Amino acid sequence: MPFLRDLRIVGASGxxxxxxxxxxxxxxxxxxxxxxxxxxxxxxxxxxGPSKESALLATSQPAKGTENSDSVCGDAESLIASWxxxxxxxxxxxxxxxxxxxxxxxxIVRDSTIRLMAWLNKPVHIPTKDDADHVAxxxxxxxxxxxxxDAASATSPPERSSELHTIVQKAFFxxxxxxxxLADVESKNKDADTSELRRRSELLRVFGRAFIALNExxxxxxxxxxxxxxxxxxxxxxxxDNKQISESAKLWQVVAYRRAGKPDRxxxxxxxxxxPPASPMIGLFIRFxxxxxxxxxxxxxxxxxxxxxxxxxxxxxxEGEDESKRIAVLDRVKTLQADLYREWSxxxxxxxxxxxxxxxxxxSRKLEPQGxxxxxxxxxESITGIPELTDASSKPAENDEEESDEP
Length: 407
What we know:
Elements: H1 27-42, H2 52-57, H3 74-81, H4 90-111, H5 113-116, H6 129-139, H7 162-188, H8 195-215, H9 221-238, H10 243-259, H11 263-269, H12 280-296, H13 300-317, H14 323-350, H15 354-367
């Protein structure tokens, strides 16, 4: 659609078309730009300057109709859409920055979570060259078909989520708007203190890029490198003074390293610790990821041993939670233990150790639920420790009814 090029969100002058003339400041223009934004969210593409986000998002555009109408962030976005005039004071501009950042936080921290759970609820394996050789031999009839535990038949990565793509794309739209306002404030007032707002924007961008890299990942070398690159971007947050942000960065760094076929690096990040996690749910999944990385290295004994220690300690981490969550936690630990024993059993059988394989399979069966379905465990937030930005005039935080991030 060529006419969209004339409605670029940012022109060469750094100003939106609605800022260039008096007519374009009118309510009519504001409605038109709101329509363009909705088009972007539904799958359209507005050209922008090159950026890390656009490079990741350009791999494939979100499908039309994927907008989540039940999004917890929708009301806050509606409020922002009502801003029809330019901010006339520094205070008003910073208030709007907080509004944009609040919606971006809502999108990346809350709205993306359920779509990201696919990466945490099943093992992820990238075939190595040896695996490829195994598959080639199987297809040529030179070897028997691999059993469940073989690397070549390991669980495939989750399918790409068009909804996750759209969610992060919307978050980047709001982060871009916040950054433009911050740049304008800084150009007019060299002493303006915008450091915390800048830091918030960059933190959300980094995690958003990590989620996109995971979602768009394939088995190609280029994709693996993209995952490794975002791990590097997450690295500073692993050492963040805020322990909840630090643990969140560790979790997604470990997931990305595993997806990139780097279990050794994942193990370096997810080092064993004795102290309870600052964010119980995030900490629990970090430990699950360590178990999976150990299994990918072939160290099933260490993986099963760690899972057993998690089973002993996890209940105390969630002591203040309701019973349903505690049950879900224990169910998830048992599922992990059962999977590890089952995979180990298959590996032992492949190695001709039938008696040990049978013993491991029996342990797996003991851990499976008896007469009831397992409760699904999900994160409340994809990133913990990011406080709300409260501002009386921006108000988007009022629509996000999350509980406190305090452990």
